[in-house]
Amino acid sequence: MPKMALSHFEAAVLFALFTSIVLGVVTKKTDKERIQYGVRSFVYFLAVMFSLGWLMYLGHG
Question: Residue ranges of the domains in the chain?
């Protein structure tokens, strides 16, 4: 099996993507609601990821 060499950023984006898909599927009843919730949670994951990244960068001094 080939090994995957992912950067920390790529791994975080994949985690956000798969988690958003699962959250959308298991929490909503209609397909439209699932897609909207999945996209919204993915955007929230990315926003938090970038915000925390900048906070750590600026806090490092």
Answer: 13-60
